[in-house]
Structures are given as C-alpha cells and as structure tokens.
Amino acid sequence: MPGAPDWAVRAACARARLQERVSREPPMSHEKFDYPIIKEKVSELTHKQGVVEYANARSSKTRQAAQMRKMIDEKVDVILLDAVDAHAIAGEVQKAKDAGIPVIAYDRLAEGPIDAYISFDNELVGEVQGRTLLEALDSSGGGRPRIVMMNGSPTDPNASQFKKAALSQLDGKVTVARSYDTKDWKPENARANMAKAIQQLGVSGIDGVYSANDGMAGGVIKAFKDLGVTQLPPITGQDADLEAVQRIVTGEQYMSVYKPYPTEAENAAQMAIAKVQGRDIEFDSLARDTVDSPTQKNIPAQLVSVVALTKKNIKSTVVADGIYKISEICTAAYQPACAAAGLL
C-alpha cells in the first residue's frame, strides 16, 4: 500500500468546522474512496457545518512535511495523517502537538506524539495472505513449496507487519527462496525484483509468490508474462484494486485482501469529530485497542478487520459494499471469465 495522506480538521468556535487534507496516493486512491466517505460523514456529524479539504503529497515525504507545516500554521483543529514516511514525519507531528493540534494516524502508524491510530489489522492482513497462499499451494500438491516474497517498502511500518504476520503462517511450511523489500511499493520495482528471482530460480522453481499488495502483484505478473509464462503460480495481493479483482476473475492473481474502506473512513471521521468536540467517552469507545510505535507506547487505536478476497466471494464483498459494480469488473474483455465465475 504505497503513498500516504494527511487529513486536517478545524473547529470554529462552538461549531465543528472540519478540514481534511490527504497527502499521498494510497493503494485504492483516497481521492476516490476514503475522502468522499469522510467528507460525507463529517457533514452528517456536524449538521453540514463541517468543511473538508484534501491535499495529496504524491508519495513525497518532503511535500507532506510542507503540507503539515501549512496546516499547523493555519491552526487546523485535528489532522488525519497517512504518513508517506512514518519516521520522517515525526518532527511535524511534534510541531502539531506543540501547537495543540491532535494528530490521528490514518492507515499507517506515524511516529511522534500521535493521539490515536485507525487502520486495518495489519497483522491479520499478513496472516490472511499467508494462510490463503498456503491453501492454494496445498491444493497444487507436491513437496515443500518454494515461494518468492515481494514485501512492501522498508520505510513503511505497515510493510514489516504484513511480512512478519505472513511469515508466522508460512514458516516451516514453505521455503522462502527469495525475499525482497520493494522500494516505495512501486510495481516497476516489484517487476524488476521478480525478473531477478525468475532468472535465478527458473519458472519451475517458483511455486507461489507472496506479494504484499495488488500494485506489486501486477508487476510480478508482468515479469512472468515478459518471459511468455501463461500458467502462473498463485500470487497474493492486498487492497482489492479493480485491476486485481479482474485478475482474480481470470485466475492470473489468486487472492487479494479486501479491507472495508467505508468502515475505516467513517470511523476515522467519528474519531476526528469526537476529538475536536471534546467527547472523550465517544472517542475512547472508538479507540479501544492500543498499539506501540518506535516512539510511543499504548497509543489508542481502532483496528478494523479484513477479508480474503478470492473468486468465490467477489459478489459478497466489493460488490455488496458498493466498491465496484459488476459492470465495472466485467467489461467486454472479462465477460467470459465473469460468466465462468458466476458474476454474470
């Protein structure tokens, strides 16, 4: 899940006036999914008094730091921050704290004195990926499977959680033949890493690929296709990107992890409003979990559950939740596969 946003919320006198700024391009774009949901929820919770603004750092930690400083100078009320670089943004988080502006880490656990954290259960994400990959490998038969791990960016604390949790399921059951920490989560970097792995191990020496997200899964698949491989091993993903859902329908990608974004976004808006309006009991009820960052212990948190997305449950997950319509998934090129999968 590459990139990162900042959301800022400002309260005017007794009425909550919210500004929300996002400074990154996430896996499933915040512009398309999270931002509209949060904006609508803020409007509902503030009786249409809430003002929500959005900014995107386009995966630049320098730009994000500048955006944070601007928010602080504008005396916003609360910032929802999805950090491009969790460590690099800590100084700006401290400046917000010094200015009396609460910071809620969104989607990714930022360092510094944050007030709360809301994200999906990252350990569960990795466990679901690992378990589902094992199921696919078990069904293929044979000896101890050899896999390649395409992990996320080393600057993203989420990536290390996904990796560790996946390994908790995979250790002792597979041989990790190659493992890569993929710079900036970029699909092109995953493609290059996968090409190296294929060159060194051979196509027949790879039984499965753990890819930490869908974008990189796309790069992995391109690396195989570059060599003319048509029978792909099971490949994991995360985020339920539209292209990934279509790849799952055709069988090119085995699974993704569907994270119910509406739940995360709506609850983030509720946390921000409760914090701004001083409704401590409501805020505490929304942040009953705790997490630790490298700089802070026992951070109030909400960890939202996730689901393994396979060909079998597309209708009951991304379609049922209104993320995609059948018509968006089953375009002309995918109609035969959709019909075979029972989507048409």
Secondary structure class reads alpha/beta
Biggest beta sheet summary: 7 strands, mixed
Number of DSSP helices? 13
Report strand %: 15-25%
List how many beta strands DSSP finds. Answer: 12
Residue share in helices? 40-55%
**Amino- and carboxy-terminal Cα gap:** 30 Å
Radius of gyration from the alpha-carbon trace, in angstroms: 21 Å
Q: Residue-averaged pLDDT, rounded?
A: 89
* Topology as a string of helices (H) and strands (E): EHEHEHEEHEHEHEHHEHHEEEHHH
Stretches where pLDDT is under 50 for at least 5 consecutive residues are 10-28
The neighbouring-strand order within the major sheet is 2-1-3-4-5-11-10
Global geometry: globular
Question: Would you summarize the structure shown here?
Answer:
Helices cover 41% and strands 17% of the residues.
Characterization of the model:
The chain has about 350 residues and is α/β, with parallel strands linked by helices. It has 13 helices and twelve strands. A seven-stranded mixed beta sheet has the order 2-1-3-4-5-11-10, sandwiched between helices. The protein has a three-stranded parallel beta sheet with strand order 7-6-8, with helices on both faces. Strands 9-12 form a two-stranded antiparallel ribbon. Strand 3, helix 3 (about 90-100) and strand 4 (about 105) form a beta-alpha-beta unit. The longest helix has 19 residues, at about 120-140. The chain is globular. It starts with a strand and ends with a helix.
